[in-house]
Amino acid sequence: MTILLLLLGVFTFVFSLSTAAWPRQKRDASAGKYTVMVVIILIFLCGIIVGLFRGIQRMQTLGAVKIHQIYDAKNHPVNSNILVFLTETQLSCCGRDMLDFYPIDHLPISCCADRAAKCTPEKAFKTGCVNSMK
């Protein structure tokens, strides 16, 4: 994206210098072409920005759906347990929606920042992983 904007700036600079040296009639004719090209490029850049924004929103939605699926599984396979542990560790969250997802006396160690001691509700992260992704 940065390279595209840099190229647009260089193109605008070179084209502006070249049109200043042309005679007046050619300059007037080229100004319309220049304006059309700039508008087309701006529309193209707006399309890229909107596409990126929509992609980010879609990834957040898919991530939230996947977290719900992992936490709702009754018999977690080993890979899901590892994924839950990594998610809670990296996002500093506990449970799917909030802390009370787990029984109070069986909070996993991934719910606490201090991994050396037993995890208690006082030490546990208060936000759920779905909310941490937003």
From TrEMBL:
GO terms for cellular component: membrane. It is found in: Membrane. It is a multi-pass membrane protein. The chain crosses the membrane at residues 36-56. InterPro entries: Tetraspanin/Peripherin, Tetraspanin_EC2_sf. Its main location: membrane. Residues 1-16 form the signal peptide. Keywords: Membrane, Signal, Transmembrane, Transmembrane helix. This is Tetraspanin family. It comes from Schistocephalus solidus (Tapeworm).
